[in-house]
Structures are given as structure tokens and as C-alpha cells.
Specification:
About 55% of the residues lie in helices and about 20% in strands. It is α+β, with helices and mostly antiparallel strands.
Length: about 625
């Protein structure tokens, strides 16, 4: 009996159950998020309506105070009688032998003023108290307190703010009134809110201040009613423009009381509804803001997302359990059918992941027994591909290695005639100046430098070695220029063991000295080294004239041409050094190299090189 052949197409029939499960999961997820978003939108709408309703009711309560104060403000009868009252008050207090007629006029005027104010207040008592203040310390009260008193209005806490408003309304924070407390019943609140404004005379000059007062509990009665109805769900807060909490009031305020106002300001002043995690309760909340242009108050309604979406969470748990049961059933049915496909594919996938180009060719072959023709063909093709890829990779790596070594040696060899040319020129100048002893010392240093340059043990050296030979070069130049030349080398100790390509820093120093000495001495060369966790870099700075714009652009253009052509820089003594260094950095560090040329802000040229660690 021959071997029975099966195809992947036949086995894929049993994977349709997984597709059904995926569709089910997608549908259930969509249903869950749709219902959640629907409830969330309704919740936002509900708390938005609640905040708008609460804000409107607060506006209505403040409008009562504002309406009374405006009636007083525009009442000529009140103004005239209060002016007359204050004038006659002065006479009564300063005249010892006052005539009976003046006393009668004073009493009648006071009664008329009281009657006018009581008429303005009306029988419904929209305000609890009205005070009229002048700027000479006199006050006239109507409502609960009908006394005439000496009260310096400029001592009131709200005086400066009211004067700034220049006739516009000012709403105070909740505060106690010791005078009105004398007339309030024990069951009544002793907190009041005042609406104040400056009133003006016939010639538009400030004459005094009107203060309309109402019980705090009366103004916030609607908020308290809403809180009692929704005590298990929403919370309501009211803030003024400065973030002071108006409702609820507690004996000791905490950061929690100003949290919602600050959250609004940190988001945007125009925000209406947001969702945020409360850092104090560690609960996610839905928050709605309603700002009143009339009062300047911000009404905030807060509801816990967990309480709001509790039905959704219950529905989600039931839905999840049902989906999980269906998923397990479909998984059991499809498992045995998919096993014959998934096992060989998994083994092949593992072989691909473990494939390493660095391993011997014999190790990349793998065999899998399977009765599926397609997988057998795929396995054989994979083995053949591994062998070919390994051979090609080895050949490519050898070729690249040889090419890089050749290019590095060619670039390094270019630096030798460049250095010799400059050194011979220096010795020639020193000979003309009869600097025999210095020439001997210079030749000794040059001998060491030539041994260092011509050494082919390794194209890489420690940064410490490169710096040593750079310092030898600077010391040699010191013989020639004497006190005209100063230099400093500052290299971090931990970066001295970093391996870098040979002859990177000395040619830059040589270049800096060559062009930096074209101006009047003294000349200064600075070499600075810095290292991070990922990069090292060395900067060489001189105090010469720096790069002129034309030469700098020429060097940058040459670098762009090198990047495009990837060719060695031409073997020219003039201007070749920087391009040579750039090419060697690029060959060794590729895109993780550092190469910056330019002029320092304090003057002179500055070149910075570096690479990855």
C-alpha cells in the first residue's frame, strides 16, 4: 500500500473554525465598545445637562442680587435721599443746638429712604440685606439690619476689587457678617455672599458702594438639592475665576478641593468634558465643566466611571465567558487537524530563526519528515538556499575585508608624503635661521614619528599612543616657534584606551598649526577629548584666522563628491589631509562617525572628529 499523500489545501478546511472565532471576537469587541461608548456619551450628556442646569440656577440667584443692586443704582430717589441723609448725619453729629425742624427733616428723610429700599427689595425678599456706603465711613442698612452705622468701607475685604470694577458687579466669596449674625436665627446660616458695585452721582463721580447680601445656603440651595438626589453618583463643585472653591465649603480645604479646577486649566480653558484618572482616589472619572460668563463661576460635575459603567462591565463578563467557551470548543476541534500542518512548519520556522551565517556550511542543513508534498519541497529548497547563501556570504565578507584593508592602507600611505613634506619644510626654515640644536632635537622627534607612521602592525592604535605622537609633533614645532606657540592637550583618562585609526589627530594639529600661524603671534593650539557611553570625540582648535567661506565650502563640496563616488581623495599635498581623515573615519565607523569643520565663536578654526565605541 503506497504512502497516502495529503495537501495543505485539504487541511486548511479545519482552520475555518479559527476564522469563525476571529469573527466572533471582532463582533463581540465591537459590540462591547459600541455599547460602552454609547453609555459614556449618554453619561457625558447627562452630567453636561446637570452642570448647565446648576450653573443656570446659580446665575438666577446672583441675578436677583444684581437686579436689586441695579434698581438701587438707577434710583434717583435713593441717591438723593442718601446724599441728604449723609449731609444731615454730619449736622446731627457736629451741631450741638440743632433746630427741631432739621431733626424732623432728618427723621423723615431716613424713613423715606428706608421705604424706597424696602420697595426695591419687594415682598419676596430676593436679597437678605442691602447696605449703602459712602466714602466717609457711613453706612445705611435695610433688610434684616436697619441700622445706620459708622463703617469705613475701605476696610472691607472686597473694597479694592469693587473699585477696580468701576461700576460693574463684583461677587464676593462666602464670608461671615458679624453684624448680621446678631439678627439671624440659630438655625440660619451665618455665611453670606455679597454683590457689590460702585454707584455714581449726577456728574458721574463715585459717591459710594452698594452691597446686596444673601445667605450662602439660599444661593446654593439648588446645588444642595442636586447633591441630595444624586448623592451616590455625581459630585458637584463650584469655583470662581481665581480657582477659589465656592461649593462645597469645608473647615479645612485640601489639594483635592482645587484638583478639578487645576485640571481644567492644565488642559484648556475651553474644555467641556474630559476623562481623567483622579490621583487622590485612584479612580477614573468623567468630568464636565460649565463656565458662566455672567458670574465668572465654573461649575464642575464629576461621576465615577466605574459606577457609571457597572452594567457594561457585567455585560462584558458574561460576554467574555460565553466567547471563551466557544473559543475553547473550536480550538479543540481544530487542534488535531492543524497539528499536522503546524508541527513541520514550526520546525522549519525554528531552523530559519536559528540559521547563522557564521556557522559551518554542514550545520545549516535540516531535515523534517512530513507526509505533505508542499512542505517536503519547501524543506529541500530551504536547505539548498542555505548552502548557496552561506558560500556567497563567505565570499562577500572576504572581499569586503580585503577591500577595506586595501583602502585603509592606501589612505594611510597618503599621509606619509604629506607629513614628510611639511616636516622637511620646517627643518629647512629652521636651518636658514641657524637653529642647529633645535634641528637635532626635531630630527630625533621626527625619527620617532616616522617609525610610528611607517609601522604596519595594526591600522588601529590606542588614543593614548596617537596623543603621545601628536604631543611629540607639537614639541618639535615648539623648537621652531619658541614662546610664540603654546598648546594644551586635555583628554579624559577613561578614553585613552579607545582604539582609533592611526594618524587621525596629528594631521589635524599639523593643519591647524600651518594655517593658524598665518596671523600674528602668539599662536595657540587646543586639543580636547570627550567620551559618552556610545561615542568618543576629539576637537582641535586654533586661534588663527579660521576658514574663509570659499575654502570651507570647497572642502564640504569635496566631501559630498567623496560620498557619491566612494573614491580615494586625490594624492595632492594641499588640502588632502582633511579629506583623507574623513574617508578613513567613514570606512571604519560608517554612519556612526563624527566629522565637523568650521570656525569657533571665539575665533579660529575648529575641527571635531569621533566615532562609536
Amino acid at each position: 500500500m503506497g504512502k497516502r499523500t495529503k495537501t495543505i489545501q485539504l487541511n486548511l478546511f479545519f482552520t475555518y473554525s479559527m476564522i469563525i472565532i476571529m469573527v466572533l471576537v471582532i463582533f463581540v469587541s465591537f459590540l462591547y465598545f459600541w455599547i460602552s461608548n454609547l453609555l459614556r456619551d449618554k453619561a457625558f450628556e447627562s452630567i453636561s445637562n446637570l452642570s448647565a442646569s446648576t450653573s443656570d440656577k446659580l446665575d438666577a440667584e446672583i441675578q436677583k442680587l444684581d437686579y436689586v443692586s441695579m434698581n438701587v443704582l438707577y434710583s434717583s430717589a435713593v441717591k438723593n435721599r442718601f446724599v441728604k441723609y449723609t449731609n444731615e448725619w454730619d449736622k446731627e453729629n457736629n451741631t450741638t443746638n440743632q433746630k427741631d425742624k432739621e431733626q424732623i427733616d432728618y427723621i423723615n428723610n431716613t424713613k423715606e429712604l428706608i421705604d424706597v429700599l424696602f420697595t426695591i427689595i419687594g415682598p419676596n425678599r430676593p436679597v437678605q440685606q442691602i447696605y449703602l456706603y459712602d466714602f466717609n465711613g457711613r453706612a445705611f442698612g435695610t433688610g434684616t439690619d436697619n441700622r445706620q452705622q459708622n463703617i469705613p468701607v475701605n476696610k472691607k475685604t472686597w473694597f479694592k476689587e469693587v473699585m477696580k470694577k468701576n461700576g460693574k458687579k463684583y461677587i464676593s466669596q462666602p464670608m461671615k457678617d458679624e453684624e448680621l449674625e446678631k439678627f439671624a436665627a440659630q438655625s440660619e446660616s451665618t455665611l453670606f455672599i455679597s454683590l457689590c458695585r460702585v454707584y455714581f452721582g449726577n456728574y458721574n463721580e463715585p459717591q459710594g458702594i452698594i452691597e446686596a447680601k444673601q445667605y450662602y445656603d439660599e444661593i446654593f440651595k439648588s446645588v444642595q438639592e442636586n447633591m441630595s438626589i444624586n448623592s451616590n453618583k455625581e459630585s458637584i463643585y463650584v469655583y470662581d475665576n481665581n480657582g477659589n472653591i465656592m461649593y462645597p465649603l469645608r473647615q479645612k480645604m485640601t489639594k483635592m478641593d482645587t484638583y478639578y479646577f487645576n485640571l481644567k486649566n492644565s488642559t484648556t480653558n475651553k474644555v467641556n468634558s474630559i476623562t481623567a484618572n483622579n490621583p487622590f482616589s485612584n479612580k477614573r472619572e468623567l468630568i464636565n465643566y460649565k463656565y458662566s460668563n455672567y458670574t465668572g463661576w465654573t461649575t464642575v460635575v464629576v461621576v465615577s466611571e466605574n459606577k457609571l459603567l457597572a452594567p457594561v462591565f457585567d455585560f462584558a463578563r458574561i460576554l467574555l465567558l460565553t466567547t471563551l467557551g466557544i473559543f475553547l470548543l473550536a480550538l479543540i476541534v481544530s487542534y488535531f487537524a492543524a497539528k499536522k500542518i503546524t508541527n513541520p512548519i514550526s520546525q522549519l520556522n525554528k531552523a530559519i530563526k536559528e540559521f547563522n551565517l557564521g556557522s559551518p556550511i554542514a550545520d545549516v542543513t535540516t531535515e523534517h519528515s512530513s507526509d505533505l508534498n508542499e512542505l517536503e519541497d519547501l524543506n529541500q529548497a530551504f536547505n539548498k538556499m542555505n548552502i548557496k547563501l552561506k558560500k556567497s556570504h563567505i565570499e562577500l565578507m572576504l572581499s569586503q575585508k580585503h577591500e577595506m584593508q586595501s583602502r585603509m592602507l592606501a589612505l594611510q600611505s597618503q599621509m606619509n608624503p604629506h607629513f614628510l613634506y611639511n616636516t622637511l619644510s620646517t627643518i629647512s626654515v629652521m636651518a636658514e635661521e641657524s637653529m642647529d640644536e633645535q634641528i637635532v632635537e626635531l630630527c630625533s622627534n621626527v625619527s620617532d614619528l616616522l617609525r610610528y607612521i611607517s609601522s604596519d602592525k595594526s591600522p588601529l592604535v590606542e588614543l593614548k599612543t596617537e596623543i603621545q605622537y601628536t604631543e611629540k609633533y607639537l614639541s618639535s614645532m615648539k623648537f621652531r616657534y619658541g614662546n610664540k606657540l603654546t598648546y594644551s592637550i586635555e583628554i579624559e583618562e577613561e578614553m585613552k584606551k579607545v582604539k582609533i585609526p592611526k594618524l587621525l589627530i596629528q594631521p589635524i594639529v599639523e593643519n591647524a598649526l600651518k594655517y593658524g600661524t598665518r596671523k600674528e603671534p602668539p599662536w595657540n593650539i587646543k586639543v580636547r577629548g570627550h567620551m559618552t557611553n556610545t561615542f568618543w570625540q576629539v576637537s582641535v582648535q586654533d586661534n588663527g584666522a579660521g576658514f574663509d567661506l570659499e575654502k570651507l565650502n570647497g572642502i564640504l563640496k569635496s566631501i559630498e563628491e567623496l560620498d557619491r563616488s566612494v573614491l580615494l581623495p586625490s594624492l595632492e599635498i594641499e588640502g588632502m589631509g582633511l579629506l583623507n581623515i574623513y574617508m578613513r573615519l567613514k570606512l571604519y565607523y560608517k554612519n556612526q562617525m563624527i566629522f565637523h569643520i568650521g570656525n569657533h565663536v571665539s575665533g579660529g578654526a575648529m575641527i571635531t572628529i569621533g566615532g562609536s565605541l
